[in-house]
Amino acid sequence: MIDTQAIFNIKTEDQFNEHALNVFQFQFKNNRTYRSFCDLLYIHPSDIKHYKDIPFLPIEFFKTRDILSSSKPVQCTFSSSGTTGSITSKHLVTDTSIYEDSFRKGFTNAYGNIEDYVVLALLPSYLERNGSSLIYMVNDMINQSNHPESGFYLDNLSELKSKLIDLDSRGQKVLLIGVSFALLDLVEAHQFKLKHTIIMETGGMKGRRKELIRTELHNILKAGFGVNEIHSEYGMTELLSQGYSKGHGIFNCPPWMKILTRDPEDALTIQTEGKTGGINVIDLANVNSCAFIATQDLGKITGENAFEVIGRFDNSDIRGCNLMAL
């Protein structure tokens, strides 16, 4: 068994490496899909001395396989959004308390006590479907904030405008977390000059608007909300941890999460800091599914536990990773 509380108490690089190797050995033994993937690469735990040598499972497998390292009953299934008829990812979670520990400690690590904030959520596209890990997290944040004015907003933008202006004028710290298209809808209808409010976008136009590059999106939102920076959250259905950006598109990870980049032409080669490549995520909170995931995002490492997301691969498959029929 893996001691998850010890994972959340990681302080040093050596501790991260030790826990990553332990989780890898556990998942090699207990995760059938991941074991098959490693076998096809002819990789065995005895070959692995450092977390950079661990194989990263292509994220596409979450669409076609049950990625499980635990025999315990599934408590919750998170699913990705998708267009009609498309295959969506599913993340089978056997212990939701690990997810709760991860996002609570991750937020505290980045922003301090959630009880200091009124949490307002503008996430219509997520509220309109079941199985969103983001809604699960934000709903918990609203409850943990222990503030009667925290809550979700769907289409009631006028009410949200009044609430934002009122809270900000009182000097109340506010976290407004929203999907990009909904935040744009809000600033097109109302202009603000907020001094005590964090605007955090979770990305995605969800087919509602033309996609914008991050700089363009953030400039529009900064002008509309009257703030100096737009914050962002980096998370996905297949992860139980998040990275946060406080501006300029630079994300920081909690101590139990790490980003590496791989060569776009050779998926098994890990690149040095500063080079753009495919983003590989180590999320040690994913102890009961798979902690080592090759995503479809492109990015680069910008510093210790800091990274930037550049874009996504054009093709749906990750080159060099598809050793097993999906």
Throw out a few tags for this protein.
alpha/beta; single chain; 326 residues; 15 strands; 32% helix
Tell me what the structure shows.
There is one protein chain. This protein has 326 residues and is an alpha/beta fold. The chain has ten helices and 15 strands. The chain has helices at residues 4-7, 13-30, 32-40, 61-64, 96-111, 124-127, 133-145, 157-169, 180-189, 214-225, and strands spanning 57-58, 76-79, 90-93, 118-122, 151-153, 174-178, 197-201, 231-234, 243-245, 250-252, 257-263, 266-270, 277-283, 292-303, 306-312. Strands 1, 4, 5, 6, 7, 8, 9, 10, 11, 12, 13, 14 and 15 form a 13-stranded mixed beta sheet that branches. It has a two-stranded antiparallel ribbon with strand order 2-3. Strand 14 (292-303) and strand 15 form a beta hairpin. Helix 2 crosses helix 3 (32-40) and helix 9 (180-189) packs parallel to helix 10. The longest helix has 18 residues, at 13-30. The radius of gyration is 20 Å and the shape is globular. It starts with a helix and ends in a 14-residue tail after the last strand. The relative contact order is 0.15. Mean pLDDT is 92; it is low at 316-326.
Which H/E pattern describes the elements?
Answer: HHHEHEEHEHHEHEHEHEEEEEEEE
Profile the largest sheet: 13 strands, mixed
Helix proportion: 25-40%
Q: How many H/I helical runs?
A: 10
Ranges where pLDDT stays below 50 over 5 or more residues in a row are 316-326
> How many β-strands, per DSSP?
15
| Average of per-residue pLDDT values | 92
Instruction: Return Rg in Å.
Output: 20 Å
Shape assignment: globular
Structural class: alpha/beta
Termini gap: 29 Å
Strand content: 15-25%
